[in-house]
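Researcher: For the annotation table, I need structure tokens for Peptidase A2 domain-containing protein. Please keep the output clean. Sequence:
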Amino acid sequence: MLSSIWSVGRLVGQPSAGRGFTGGSNPFLDPPRYIPPGGEAAADLSLRVHETLHVYDAALIPHTASAVLDTGNAGNTMITRRVASSLGLMSHLGAARTVAVRGVVAGATERVPVIPITYELKGKRLCVMAAVTDADLGCDVLMSVHDIRLFESDGYRLSTR
């Protein structure tokens, strides 16, 4: 007799206890399949404009941070200098690379350092190069369109509600 090893989900096509496969089904032609659980255990794949995520510090310890998913940000994901410094992500030697960022004011640009950061949102972890800014973003991390698309390619959906 076969038994399921799944505790949360279930296997479909498995014989129940005390019975074999019914109807002459062949387990090689109709193998058991995992059905993910519904309800509270199901993954939340909805994204909102304002989210809470975890940014990993230099020792890979997660820290809660606020984020805005900015569909108008075609450039880099950004992190505030305050957060990057407090997590030990900023080198005292300075950044090896910089990038020019543009604001909403026409012609306004600023060169800022770029650092690698790792963050996790709703079970998906990304390692990205983030621009470090002194600007008041209204959040700790401003996610770029590129990062949002990486989430959407894995089935996440951004809702403006």
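Researcher: And a one-line annotation?
Model: Residues 1-9, 16-21 have pLDDT under 50 and may be disordered.
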